[in-house]
């Protein structure tokens, strides 16, 4: 009797999960993909870093790229704004469509294209200038010269990342005088100032203390209303906390992807199962 | 065992301190020695007269160093103007834009250039630069020159400074984090904007250091300049005219004409002058390095 009840309950739970998954998948599919990656390969003379990556990233969601170190998450992220161009040894092939435009094609206006994608790196890299100039930098590159507009944007974006109260009386101080957590928020404010559509975040909390990590995570939750966030992490709990969609990568390939509740709680592949067990 | 470790610790500490004090005392002893040797001249003539008079007649006891100071400064500035932009742009290209293969090829070439004895550069100057000045550049400007000139001296010096400056600049640009460049590019900067706002700004203290090293090297260089500069007393703004830098004065005359009163002392004063100028150059650049590091 008990076993029957249990099996019935588990079936019921499974059905519920399936129907919930269907809803989640359909929700994701409803949103038009802002990024489409088709057959992306990145290789060096020593071997392949990314192998035939096919991925659709929906708008206004947090997509987490998960996987062990060296699996190609950062390379995939940097392929999206062609920062891979800085590394001459990398050979990139395939298509990356951002809003339907293939950014891998020659003749692209790289500067304009990159402004659509704010980058937040593992460690904050404030530019060698004042706090104010860091946020104003992208705006000036955009050709905005009005001091009023720039000052307004600096204030708005510093408020947005919760930094304004901490720095408003020392905007002319060097950016590297801030704490690491503050620097990371400054870098986010700097990226937001150029009004990107996508935020690329490469393990942005790995160098931060738990309080700063929480601030950044809360900011991401808030920002996804207006931005698509692609987050690289290997912290499983962070993926669970933030992700709308998880892409698990291993040795340059996408092994599994889906809603975090599905793939992190019921992984289908042995590799992900092992990763989750080791990770926990 | 503990006692042995303690003794070893004390001995190493003492040895390191002795080494440090020895190193620090070298320039102090040099200054004291030069000052002591230059003493007779400093007693007999005013410092202003020594520095700002252009009369040089040791037989009459006239020791005006202005032509030597002028020539030294002229060839140094010329060498700096010729080499600094070249090194800066070459280092930027090699570290930011070129393929790793080219950099790997260039590094040993730069080391070889740095290792060539200065007399070889002097010979190269006589064989190539001097005829180029006398037969090419001077006629082009409608004038004549023997070729042994401030321009020849500045050019040879520039070539000699390049490996030192270039090497240091490459090192400086390599220390700039890739993340900072990526941050700039991802905000919409073009490659040149990234270089201007990140590489040059972040590398500013290092760039100043490299330039300081180049200028100090140029100001004190002796043999190669002596071979091509003409060694003639002259204060002329024309780079096609010969000159007589301070190191050449010392190298050409030391050990000779010691029968002339105060001549030995005058050469020691020239050496002291060189030392002080190089010290001032270094302090000047250090100030900018310190200022740049605050950004």
Q: If you consult CATH, what is the topology of the largest domain in chain B? A: MetI-like fold
What composes the largest sheet of chain B?
A: 2 strands, antiparallel
Structural class of chain B: mainly alpha
For the record, give the distance between the C-alpha atoms at the N and C termini of chain B, rounded to a whole number.
49 Å
Secondary-structure element order of chain B, N to C = HHEEHHHHHHHHHH
**Total number of helical segments of chain B?**
12
What this model shows, in words?
The complex is a heterodimer of chains A (280) and B (295). Chain A has 280 residues and is of the alpha/beta class. Among the domains of chain A are: 1-29; 126-195, no CATH class. In chain A, 43% of the residues lie in helices and 24% in strands. Chain A has a six-stranded mixed beta sheet, sandwiched between helices. In chain A, strands 2-1-4-5 form a four-stranded antiparallel beta sheet, with helices on one face. In chain A, helix 4 (131-141) crosses helix 5 (147-160) and helix 5 packs across helix 7. By secondary structure, chain B is mainly alpha-helical. Chain B folds into two domains: 2-50; 67-293, Orthogonal Bundle (MetI-like fold), CATH 1.10.3720. In chain B, 77% of the residues lie in helices and 1% in strands. In chain B, helix 3 (66-97) runs parallel beside helix 6 and helix 7 (178-186) crosses helix 8. The longest helix of chain B is centred in the N-terminal third of the chain and has 43 residues, at 2-44. Classes of the chains: A alpha/beta (280), B mainly alpha (295).
């Amino acid at each position: 009797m008990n076993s029957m009840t249990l099996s019935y309950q588990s079936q019921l739970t499974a059905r519920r999960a399936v129907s919930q998954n269907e809803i989640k998948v359909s929700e994701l599919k409803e949103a038009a993909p802002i990024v489409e990656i088709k057959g992306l390969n990145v290789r060096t003379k020593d071997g392949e870093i990314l192998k035939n990556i096919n991925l659709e990233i929906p708008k206004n969601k947090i997509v987490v790229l998960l996987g062990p170190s060296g699996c190609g998450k950062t390379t995939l992220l940097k392929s999206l704004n062609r920062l891979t161009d800085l590394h001459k040894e990398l050979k990139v092939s395939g298509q990356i469509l951002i809003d339907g435009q293939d950014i891998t094609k020659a003749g692209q206006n790289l500067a304009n294209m990159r402004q659509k994608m704010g980058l937040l790196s593992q460690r904050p890299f404030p530019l060698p200038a004042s706090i104010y100039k860091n946020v104003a930098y992208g705006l000036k590159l955009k050709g905005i010269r009005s001091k009023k507009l720039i000052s307004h944007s600096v204030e708005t974006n510093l408020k947005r990342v919760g930094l304004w109260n901490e720095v408003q009386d020392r905007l002319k101080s060097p950016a590297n005088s801030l704490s690491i957590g503050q620097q990371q928020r400054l870098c986010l404010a700097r990226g937001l100032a150029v009004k990107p559509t996508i935020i690329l975040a490469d393990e942005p909390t790995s160098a931060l203390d738990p309080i700063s990590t929480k601030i950044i995570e809360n900011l991401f939750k808030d920002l996804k209303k207006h931005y698509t966030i692609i987050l690289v992490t290997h912290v499983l709990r962070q993926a669970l906390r933030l992700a709308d969609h998880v892409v698990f990568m291993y040795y340059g390939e996408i092994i599994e992807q889906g809603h975090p509740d599905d793939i992190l709680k019921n992984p289908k592949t042995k590799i992900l199962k092992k990763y989750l067990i080791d990770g926990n | 065992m503990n006692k042995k470790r303690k003794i070893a610790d004390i001995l190493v500490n003492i040895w390191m301190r002795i080494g440090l004090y020895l190193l620090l005392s070298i320039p102090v002893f040099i200054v004291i020695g030069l000052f002591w040797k230059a003493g007779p001249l400093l007693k007999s003539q005013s410092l202003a007269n020594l520095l700002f008079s252009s009369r040089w007649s040791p037989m009459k006891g006239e020791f005006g160093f202005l032509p030597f100071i002028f020539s030294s400064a002229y060839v140094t500035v010329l060498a700096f103007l010729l080499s600094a932009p070249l090194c800066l742009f070459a280092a930027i290209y090699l570290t930011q834009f070129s393929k790793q293969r080219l950099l790997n090829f260039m590094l040993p070439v730069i080391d070889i250039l740095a290792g060539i004895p200065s007399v070889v550069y002097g010979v190269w100057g006589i064989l190539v630069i001097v005829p180029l000045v006398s037969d090419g550049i001077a006629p082009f400007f409608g004038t004549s020159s023997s070729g042994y000139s401030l321009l020849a001296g500045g050019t040879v010096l520039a070539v000699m400074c390049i490996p030192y400056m270039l090497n240091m600049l490459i090192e400086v640009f390599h220390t700039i984090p890739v993340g900072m460049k990526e941050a700039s590019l991802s905000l919409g900067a073009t490659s040149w904007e990234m270089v201007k706002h990140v590489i040059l700004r972040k590398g500013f203290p290092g760039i100043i250091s490299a330039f300081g090293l180049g200028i100090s090297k140029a100001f004190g260089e002796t043999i190669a300049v002596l071979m091509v500069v003409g060694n003639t007393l002259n204060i002329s703004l024309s780079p096609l005219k010969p000159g007589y830098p301070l190191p050449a004065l010392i190298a050409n005359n030391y050990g000779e004409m010691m029968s002339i009163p105060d001549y030995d002392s005058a050469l020691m004063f020239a050496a002291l002058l060189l030392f002080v100028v190089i010290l001032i150059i270094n302090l000047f650049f250090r100030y900018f390095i310190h200022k740049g590091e605050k950004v």
